[in-house]
Design goal:
With 609 residues, the protein is an alpha/beta fold. The protein folds into 3 domains: 143 residues, ATPase, nucleotide binding domain (Nucleotidyltransferase, domain 5, 2-Layer Sandwich), CATH 3.30.420.40; 210 residues, ATPase, nucleotide binding domain (Nucleotidyltransferase, domain 5); 213 residues, no CATH class. The protein contains 19 helices and 29 strands. Strands 16, 17, 18, 19, 20, 21, 22, 23 and 24 form a 9-stranded mixed sheet that branches. Helix 1 packs across helix 3. It is globular and about 85 Å long.
């Protein structure tokens, strides 16, 4: 399956051909740059990432001319047949949470998002419209930079601004999503650990730059906000500034908001601090004693370091920092500056390894000391590959003419106990006793109950579920955390590292234990049903639950496949309330074939997490 990928900008056009059946999958790489009235430059590479780079002048003068020239360029090298075409789109707003097949309605929605990304979405739209004319019979897919960040929780993506503004879409969206997602996958492979067990900070550092906190495979915060202007110092963008600067400059210099925004985007950042945004030149000037260059380097590194520290705290710990992007990949000095004074996290560089990381063939290089607890990795990003991969995954999703219906059950707060906890709470040698069975036959509701006590409040009778587990786990809803006065993390069942402690009290004693979580929604699935639906353990789907007038889209629902599982979706009481369903009502989950999701129907019942 060969996939053609476009990444259109106002002053350049990147395009590539990917054969995902090959290990070295990008078989053609092309880029038109430097559009001028006299023409442009075409850079291209054949036969994989290790192929020789070629450069030639071309007559194209605009983005439209460059797109029109692509079919002829590809034919020259024998690339004419493609399974599909993928487009990078920077901003997908609230609507687009996954890659989508492009039709007229999608084009209209992307256009509506242009107000949020006026420098980026119009170019992508121009490419989409022209490419649909050039290849009218091919499936075309939009892949959004913002999509990966739709898992950021509401308290991290919202701004504390008037409700009317938030209703207009003023919130944190985040960008570089395909890059952050790619390097997270590569980091997990390099560390030989499942991605859903890791807490990573991805640092995409280039002319545009952002940091992303990735907890258990999901983006939970990122430095860019409603637009790509927020966050780190960048090549020509300021990053974080006080919003009061707009009114101050209006009073002092007579600049309107548009003029200030233009300056913050195009004449700020490293360019404003050092007179250039090219980091090698800034580093050379700093060595020669240029104080402007020295300030630029210190400020740049400080801003990245500050975000790393903040995101380590937000995730409750850190397993690895990953550097990528032009600066992240190529500047050993900047990586060292950023990592300075992070030793308290267990992060320590090996300077020799930092100076010479092997990034050939998109390898991941470890540049940390061998005894460092927090790993430091460097890798080349590969956003076009991720776009091609998402296109392939979308096209391979099963299409069903009929809704497949599976149960949905509501899980109230409950406790799983370790054998030691049972002894402490109910007496040494006590055995949990069956009260009633659950749908998932590996678990059952016990007669025993315990009190769950927090610093602010408590729940006096919380059901214990059997059998015992190796570690105690307490599952509550987000609303319950406010009653207890404890901020519990959203986690898949069993992921208990760095979870908060709570007091459990039983008839024979009490214990203080960690393991308090808000359980992430999930679908238990039998292997047979998973095979039928082409799903695998750990996959994520989007589900729409509830009555037609109060349907709620539950995105990022994890599939858990195991022998003995009965196919059934589990949501907690907060999610059930949001969907307008209860223990005694039914709701329908509607199929979204564009995302390969299944339809399900709610049924009453208590379930184990």
């Amino acid at each position: 399956m060969k996939i053609l990928v476009f990444n259109a900008g106002s002053s350049s056009l990147k395009f590539g051909v990917f054969d995902l059946e090959r290990a070295d999958s990008r078989v053609f790489k092309g880029e038109f740059t430097q559009f001028t009235p006299a023409g442009s430059v075409l850079n291209y590479r054949l036969e994989g990432e290790q192929g020789q780079e070629h450069t030639r002048t071309d007559t194209v003068t605009t983005l439209a001319d460059a797109i029109a020239q692509v079919p002829a360029v590809l034919r020259t090298f024998g690339y004419e047949d493609f399974a599909a075409i993928g487009h990078r789109v920077v901003h997908g707003g609230e609507k687009f949470r996954n890659a989508v097949l492009i039709d007229d309605s999608v084009v209209k929605e992307i256009d509506a998002c242009s107000t949020l990304a006026p420098l980026h979405n119009p170019a992508a739209l121009q490419a989409i419209r022209l490419v649909r004319q050039l290849w009218p019979l091919l499936s075309q897919v939009a892949v959004f930079d913002t999509a990966f960040h739709h898992t950021i929780p509401d308290f991290a993506c919202n701004y504390a601004v008037p409700a009317a503004w938030r209703q207009l879409g003023v919130r944190r969206y985040g960008f570089h999503g395909t890059s952050h997602h790619y390097v997270a996958i590569k980091a997990a492979e390099a560390l030989q650990r499942p991605l859903n067990e890791l807490r990573l900070i991805s640092c995409h550092l280039g002319n545009g730059a952002s940091v992303c906190a990735i907890s258990h495979g999901q983006s939970v915060d990122t430095s860019m906000g409603m637009t790509p202007l927020e966050g780190l110092v960048m090549g020509t963008r300021s990053g974080d500034v006080d919003p009061g600067v707009f009114t101050f400059l209006a009073r002092e210099l007579g600049l309107d908001a548009t003029a200030v925004e233009q300056q913050l985007n195009n004449n700020s950042g490293l360019q404003a601090l050092a007179g250039t945004y090219e980091l090698p030149g800034i580093e050379a000037h700093a060595v020669a004693g240029d104080t402007r260059a020295q300030l630029a380097l210190r400020l740049y590194a400080y801003r990245v370091r500050k975000y790393i520290g903040a995101y380590a705290a937000a995730m409750g710990g850190l397993d690895a920092v990953v550097f990528t992007g032009g600066i992240g990949e190529n500047s050993a000095d900047m990586r060292r500056r950023i990592c300075e004074r992070l030793e308290f996290l267990g992060l320590m560089l090996d300077e020799d390894r930092n100076r010479a990381p092997d990034l050939a063939d998109f390898r991941v290089a470890g540049i940390h000391s061998m005894d460092a607890r927090v790993k430091v990795l460097v890798t080349r990003t590969n956003e076009q590959y991720m776009i091609a991969r998402e296109v392939q995954e979308l096209l391979n999703q099963p299409r069903s003419e009929h809704n497949i219906r599976i149960p949905v059950a509501i899980s109230a707060r409950h406790v799983h106990l370790s054998p030691a906890a049972v002894d402490a709470l109910f007496g040494k040698g006590h055995q949990l006793t069956l009260d009633h069975s659950l749908t998932q036959q590996e678990g059952w509701a016990a007669r025993e109950m315990v009190a769950v006590i927090g610093p602010k409040g408590s729940f006096p009778t919380v059901r214990v579920l059997g059998p015992t587990r190796s570690a105690t786990q307490i599952e509550i809803s987000r609303t319950d955390t406010f009653t207890l006065g404890i901020d519990a993390p959203l986690r898949p069942s069993g992921h208990l590292l760095n979870t908060p402690q709570v007091l459990l009290r039983g008839p024979a004693g009490e214990i203080t234990t960690d393991g308090l979580i808000v359980a992430a929604r999930h679908i238990h699935m039998s292997p047979a049903d998973a095979q039928t639906l082409h799903l695998h353990d750990g996959d994520y789907v989007d589900m729409i639950v509830g009555s037609s007038d109060r349907a709620v889209d539950f995105t990022h629902t994890q599939i858990r496949v195991k022998d003995g599982f009965v196919t059934e979706m589990h949501i907690d009481t907060d999610e059930a309330n949001a969907a307008g369903i209860s223990f005694c009502t039914t709701g329908e989950l509607v199929t979204n074939n564009d995302r390969g999701t299944a339809a399900v129907v709610n049924k009453p019942g208590n379930v184990a997490g």
